[in-house]
Amino acid sequence: MQQFSHDTIVVLDFGAQYSQLIARRVREMHVYSQIVPYTTSAEDLKAMKPTGIIFSGGPASVRTEGSPRPDPAIYELGIPILGICYGLQVMSIQNGGEVQRPDKREYGFADLTILSENSSLLTGISANSRLWMSHGDAVSSLPEGFVQTGSTPNCPYTVLEHEKKRFYGVQFHPEVVHTAQGKQFLENFVLGICKAEQNWDMGSFIATAIEDIRAKVGDKQVLCGLSGGVDSAVAAVLIHEAIGDQLVCVFVNNGLLRKGEAEMVQKVFRDNYKIRLQYADAEEAFLSALKGVTEPEAKRKIIGKVFIDTFYDEARKAGEISFLAQGTLYPDVIESKSPSGGPSATIKSHHNVGGLPEDLKWDLLEPLRELFKDEVRALGRELGLPEELVTRHPFPGPGLGVRCVGEVTKPRLDTLRDVDAIFIEEIRKAGLYHDIWQALACLLPVKSVGVQGDERTYEEVCSLRAVTSEDAMTADWFRFPPDVLQHAASRICNEVSGVNRVLYDITSKPPGTIEWE
Ligand code: XMP
Known about the structure:
Elements: E1 8-13, H1 19-28, E2 32-37, H2 42-48, E3 52-55, E4 81-84, H3 86-94, E5 98-100, E6 106-111, E7 113-114, E8 130-135, E9 138-141, E10 147-152, E11 155-162, E12 167-170, H4 182-193, H5 202-217, E13 222-226, H6 230-243, E14 247-253, H7 261-272, E15 276-281, H8 283-290, H9 296-317, E16 323-325, H10 330-335, E17 363-365, H11 373-382, H12 387-390, H13 410-429, E18 438-452, E19 455-468, E20 476-477, H14 482-495, E21 499-504
Parallel strand pairs: 1-2, 1-3, 3-4, 4-12, 13-14, 13-16, 14-15, 16-17, 19-21
Antiparallel strand pairs: 5-9, 6-8, 7-10, 10-11, 11-12, 18-19, 19-20
Helix pairs in contact: 5-6, 5-11, 6-11, 8-9, 13-14
Xanthosine-5'-monophosphate binds at residues 349-350, 394, 396-398, 438, 472, 509, 513-515.
């Protein structure tokens, strides 16, 4: 078991959607936090020397036979424990309390009544503080030695404490933003009760990750596909810090990239970081496979297949490879969580078509799988990646293939690249790039009549789209000051030959998607 060089709060994971959010909240206090499965033995936990333990919530009911239980010897370690939701309930029943299902499930806000003036978990918490509840079961009788220090109208045992043993439990979720003083509750536990030292930062993350990568990889070789996006870039640079030339990166130019992208990737990775980079110019292969195809799904399938063929060809050229590095983030892990409860290893992105060929057997190396997107950006900055790359808008794997609606041809792609570059440049000039989740241009499968100079034209139509979003699941169209759109539109018609009309897309998602396809 790993022993940490920093004070560490271990999150014992009972399968909650929010486990990583708890760890992240702790890291925001500059205290290291790591998630381990609930099955971790007390002995292994002790060896990790945690400063405190947090039991996460979980989807099961403690009243169900076979539901997750931590090793009861954990209560003998003398380490402070905070149980959240399911974590509180499991701690309660393992210490002689009872849990029942009240008539009503409680989901939503509740106001806290403070029942004790000198509770260390409630220091600085206001009367009627707003909590976020999400539970079916609730503690119905106190575990031995515990006192009730907080309640809500529907849940008498909302906050429980055993001061002497330093065991604490809350029925609500302090880790979510809906709990008004969530940060204060967690700080009271981590800093007040556990007295964790606040000396962890991204630099410490890098040091630990480098050690982990070296230990895992040994003298083997790692292959990493670069997409031009931030996740694979950060993963590659981090792994390169750890193992240098044992890392080989592959970048496939599919001919569907944004203007200047292939050059940027080569400059950053090969010239600046001196990373071994195999650059595959496969534009020809992609475009000839896409010839005459207009149906969106067919285009995606072709792009996926040609990508995988090209990538595997490059992999074979790279020599003996043991690991495939991926920039998998925590939200990707959550999306692919297996029914058995453990995060499953799946190959990220749409390129996952039917597993690896027989002669290419790789283990996965995913050094970012504990992190959220903004943490990856912070890490990228710490590793010296250019700000432009670190804060880029998302870009789909099939690239301009999905934005060139209708047939994908080299002249249309060149036109689209120019339109896109002007649109993004105008957005940056207006200082709006970071207010927007994603901005993009599409070329529509329609031509329209226009007049330029004295001539009538019959040219392509492009559509500009910019959206705000939290997670790309839903999105709203971005309200530009009209001047910005006007500048972009007039520059596009003047500077890009072959386009004579510019539309702005005001469809939200749903019903629209972000991309056009
Ligand atoms: P839609 O168009 O479905 O897109 O609203 C949601 C988000 O996903 C991106 N996107 C993709 N990303 N491979 C990717 O890596 C893809 O095939 C793909 N298709 C869409 C899209 O840009 C948006 O951010």
